[in-house]
Every structure is written in structure tokens, then in C-alpha cells.
């Protein structure tokens, strides 16, 4: 509904703040069709140190609630034309809104009060409103809302919601990462989690939410690997098209956290809106009424976003907003001290869930796990341990309980060779550094010299090679270098195995390379 010209327009919405951190000032929606009453109530609210947001009817009130994520309370007149107060309460209930509501009427009755409470009102005030009674009702409503949030957070924590206490490590470098995560959880800033597949980015993202002041509220995840590019913006910001969720996940996670997985896949148009939201708190398209959901963003990626920003496939302003709290999760091969600790913890936990007592692994089984380089990281380790527990018979896991690892290592000779390799370097600052270093080292080892860039990119006729040609040559080189071990090839190239198999088909590369496809 359009604001009238009587001077009670809410005006520009101020900088976004967090209403979940209870403060002395709250944004209170004042809904009354009577202009004089609306001004009077707004003045009383302002006198109590709060900010009054006036609305002249039920339709305008619902529109403001949908667009303004910082509202803490609503004062609602019951008797209004078109959509009255009871209809507004019904609409809030249908949409699952948790905004506390105090209803007002100049003609109170027990039946009306009872009906309003049944439909979600937390208090009832008779007109004309007594300032002292209004102050008490507002203070009580805000205090109850804050207490309810605290109790909900404790309920989630006691019920096993993940927090950083679940992210364990004995490796010194990883323990420093965990300390960094603790600071990120407390900051309230957007967080960027970088790391290879299987390093636990999704688990860590949920742990950050569970450790933060938003614990107990919504924690939603948007996996961009499962959505077509043309649908990503609607999934994030909502759509008015038929059959679509008008809210989007950014609005649905209001008050909590939205995890955006594989953020690098987001199209440029959606990147622009997300960058604007992170900068201003406004999620609405340009030219439309502001929409300010209060949602924390945690983004994950397998690729270094700085490189993508330099290439132009990621907006620089989005990178700068996300990179306020970057955290790199090192791969498991770069923290070998965690391999056995994680395996033993997982074995004991899975065994306990099945009613068994497992005392760990035999020495030979430990050697087997240490001989594997874990391209799938923690996720791969946990899969192998789960299978081992399922087929094991004794109190300790043996090498025979890890048949897939035995096949991969191809006997004790390969294991001994792996164990005699030089210590791996410490974790790089970003993921691309590890991938590029691996490729460069491989080429120098194979030829004795660094690769000639002119030979690589320019053909005999002087023309520049296509990207497809270069990519095909690199895949063939990696296959030769790693003797057809697809896990190692995929990890070196920085892609998933399914993507690698697709490229083998696209480029007509012999499928006989797939030595570890089983």
C-alpha cells in the first residue's frame, strides 16, 4: 500500500544491524489505519527509545514484514478496513513468521482477546493506550523473545547440533586453523572456506553456525553443484514466477546462516546482487523496495577465488566481501598426524553405534592407512573406516578389513615406496598453489627442465593452440605421470573424478587408463 503524504513515512532504512543481539533500541512496526492513532503510537514508541515503523493497514504491514528483516515487534490494531488485525495474525501463522505481536483495540472483550491470543498475539492493549502499560508490554515482549532465542540455542546445542568442539585435530597446523575458525565464528562476518573436496568444508560451515550467536536458528545450505545456472539467482534471492519460492534461501535463513557451497559457480548477475547484499544488507534488485534479510553468509569453494577474480569469472567486489574471514582447510595428506586419530575415533564411534567395542587398529592396518595419500581427504577416510567396521570381526581393524586400500597400493612394495617418500610440504595458503606446484614439479622431474611455454602454446605452423588442445595434452600428461590412477590425476588437475571421466570421453582418450576405476 502506498504511503500517504502525512509525514509518517518510515523514510530510508538505516544500516543493517543484528536484532538477535538484544539492544536498547528495537525496530517496532506500528499498524493502525487511523492516522492520528498511528502518529500517537509512533511517538510513544520513539519516546521509549525504539524506532517506530508506521503502516496504515494490514496489507502494508505484511509487505514490510516480508521486506524488512530487522523488525523486532509489531503493535497491531485489530479493527481496520480490508485486511484487519485478525487476518494479519492468520497470515503470519500461515507463513511461519515468528514476529511477536501486541494487539490493540478500542472495544476490548474477552472473546476478542482470547481469539487474538489463539492466533498468536502475545499481549493485548486497550485504546487509548496508557504509556506506562505500553512500555511494560514492549519490554516484556522483547525480553521473552530474547529468552526464547537463548533457550532454542541451548536446546540445539544440547541436542547435538554441530559446533567447533566436533572439529578435532592433533596436527599443529590444523589446530591453528581451528583457532582461526573460533575467531570467525564469533565475528559475525561472512566467512570463506577454501579446500579440496572431502576436507570437511560443509561440516566446518555448520560448526561455525553452531558456535556463533545464531546457533539454534536456521542454518540452510545452497549447493550450486545441484542447480542449473539459470535457476541459481532465484534459489538464492527468490522469484515471483509461478511455482517458485518467492522468498529464496537468503530470506528463508533470516536470523541464521546460509551456506553457499561452490560459490564460484554463481553466475555474474547473481554475484552482483550478493555483493550488494553483503555491502548494504539490501537483497532487492536495483530500483525495487529494499529487502533486508538478516542472514550470515558462509561460502565454500574448491578453487582459489582470487584467481577467478583476476580472470573475470568472479566479481572482484564479491571476492573482497567474502574474503574478510578466509580460512583454508588443508588436505589430509598435509596433516598426516590426523589420519590415525580420525580413523580410530571414527571406528570407536561407529562400533558403539552398532553395539560393538572396537579398540582401534592393528599396527599393520595403521601402516596401510599411512601409506595412502587420501585424495578424497577426510570424507574418503571415513568411508573406508565405515566399510572396515562393517566387515570386521575382531576388536581391532586389520588390513584385510580395508580391501580397497590393499588393491590401490598393489601390495607391500608399493606401500614401502610410499612410506619412503620425502616429507610433504606444509599446507599452502590457498588451494591453487598446491595444484600448480604439483604439476610444475611433475614436469621438471620428467624432463629435467622447466616446461617451455612457447612450445606448449604455439603449434608448428605458428598458430596458438586451443584451450581444448592444451587441456587434452595436460590430461594425457597427468595420466602418464600417475600411471592411470584416476584419483591422483583428478587431484593434480583440481577436478572431480566424474569430471575427469567426462573429459576422457569428450577428448576420446583411451579408457584403459582407468587403473583405479573399480
Short description:
With 518 residues, this protein is α/β, with parallel strands linked by helices. The protein has four domains: 27-154, Rossmann fold; 164-328, Rossmann fold; 332-419, Helicase, Ruva Protein, domain 3 (Orthogonal Bundle), CATH 1.10.8; 452-513, Arc Repressor Mutant, subunit A (Orthogonal Bundle). The protein has helices at 35-47, 58-67, 85-94, 110-118, 131-158, 172-187, 201-211, 229-237, 248-252, 268-280, 305-311, 316-322, 337-353, 363-371, 377-391, 403-409, 412-419, 431-447, 453-457, 467-481, 486-493, 497-507, and strands at 27-31, 51-55, 71-77, 101-105, 123-126, 191-194, 219-223, 257-261, 296-301, 326-328, 360-361, 396-397.
What does this structure look like?
The protein has 518 residues and is of the alpha/beta class. It folds into four domains: 27-154, Response regulator (Rossmann fold, 3-Layer(aba) Sandwich); 164-328, 3-Layer(aba) Sandwich (Rossmann fold); 332-419, Helicase, Ruva Protein, domain 3; 452-513, Arc Repressor Mutant, subunit A, CATH 1.10.10.60. It is built from 22 helices and twelve strands. It is elongated, with a radius of gyration of 29 Å. The model is unreliable at 1-23, 156-160, 415-456, 458-462 and 513-518 (pLDDT under 50).
Amino acid at each position: 500500500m502506498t504511503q500517504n503524504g502525512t509525514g509518517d513515512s518510515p523514510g530510508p532504512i538505516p544500516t543493517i544491524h543484528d536484532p538477535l543481539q538484544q539492544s536498547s533500541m528495537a525496530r517496532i512496526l506500528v499498524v493502525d489505519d487511523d492516522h492520528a492513532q498511528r502518529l500517537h503510537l509512533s511517538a510513544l514508541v520513539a519516546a521509549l527509545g525504539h524506532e517506530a515503523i508506521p503502516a496504515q493497514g494490514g496489507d502494508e504491514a505484511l509487505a514490510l514484514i516480508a521486506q524488512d528483516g530487522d523488525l523486532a515487534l509489531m503493535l497491531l490494531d485489530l479493527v481496520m478496513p480490508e485486511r484487519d488485525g485478525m487476518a494479519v495474525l492468520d497470515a503470519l501463522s500461515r507463513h511461519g513468521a515468528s514476529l511477536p505481536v501486541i494487539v490493540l483495540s478500542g472495544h476490548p472483550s474477552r472473546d476478542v482477546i482470547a481469539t487474538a491470543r489463539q492466533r498468536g498475539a502475545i499481549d493485548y492493549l486497550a485504546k487509548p493506550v496508557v504509556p506506562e502499560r505500553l512500555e511494560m508490554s514492549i519490554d516484556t515482549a522483547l525480553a521473552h523473545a530474547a529468552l526464547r532465542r537463548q533457550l532454542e540455542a541451548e536446546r540445539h546445542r544440547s541436542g547435538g547440533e554441530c559446533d567447533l568442539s566436533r572439529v578435532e585435530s592433533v596436527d599443529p597446523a590444523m589446530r591453528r586453523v581451528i583457532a582461526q575458525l573460533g575467531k570467525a565464528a564469533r565475528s559475525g562476518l561472512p566467512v570463506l572456506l577454501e579446500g579440496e573436496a572431502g576436507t570437511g568444508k560443509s561440516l566446518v560451515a555448520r560448526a561455525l553456525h553452531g558456535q556463533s550467536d545464531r546457533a539454534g536458528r536456521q542454518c540452510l545450505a545452497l549447493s550450486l553443484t545441484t542447480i542449473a545456472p539459470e535457476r541459481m539467482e532465484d534459489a538464492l534471492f527468490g522469484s515471483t514466477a509461478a511455482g517458485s519460492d518467492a522468498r529464496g534461501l537468503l530470506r528463508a535463513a533470516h536470523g541464521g546462516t546460509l551456506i553457499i557451497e561452490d560459490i564460484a559457480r554463481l553466475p555474474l548477475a547473481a554475484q552482483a546482487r550478493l555483493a550488494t547484499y553483503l555491502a548494504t544488507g539490501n537483497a532487492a534488485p536495483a530500483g525495487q523496495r529494499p529487502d533486508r534479510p538478516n542472514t550470515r553468509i558462509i561460502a565454500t569453494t574448491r578453487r582459489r577465488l582470487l584467481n577467478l577474480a583476476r580472470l573475470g569469472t568472479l566479481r572482484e567486489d564479491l571476492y573482497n566481501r567474502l574474503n574478510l574471514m578466509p580460512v583454508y582447510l588443508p588436505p589430509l595428506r598435509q596433516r598426516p598426524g590426523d589420519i590415525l586419530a580420525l580413523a580410530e575415533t571414527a571406528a570407536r564411534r561407529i562400533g558403539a553405534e552398532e553395539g560393538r567395542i572396537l579398540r582401534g587398529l592393528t599396527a599393520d592396518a595403521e601402516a596401510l592407512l599411512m601409506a595412502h595419500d587420501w585424495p578424497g581427504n577426510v570424507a574418503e577416510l571415513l568411508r573406508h573406516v565405515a566399510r572396515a567396521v562393517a566387515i570386521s570381526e575382531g576388536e581391532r581393524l586389520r588390513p584385510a578389513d580395508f580391501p580397497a586400500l590393499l588393491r590401490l597400493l598393489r601390495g607391500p612394495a608399493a606401500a614401502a615406496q610410499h612410506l619412503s617418500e620425502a616429507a610433504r610440504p606444509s599446507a599452502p595458503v590457498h588451494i591453487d598453489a598446491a595444484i600448480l606446484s604439483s604439476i610444475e614439479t611433475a614436469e621438471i622431474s620428467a624432463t629435467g627442465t622447466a616446461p617451455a611455454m612457447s612450445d606448449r602454446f604455439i603449434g608448428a605452423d605458428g598458430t596458438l593452440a586451443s584451450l581444448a588442445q592444451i587441456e587434452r595434452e595436460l590430461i594425457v600428461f597427468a595420466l602418464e605421470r600417475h600411471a592411470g590412477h584416476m584419483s591422483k590425476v583428478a587431484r593434480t588437475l583440481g577436478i572431480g573424478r566424474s569430471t575427469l571421466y567426462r573429459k576422457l570421453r569428450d577428448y576420446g582418450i583411451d579408457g584403459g587408463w582407468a587403473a583405479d576405476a573399480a
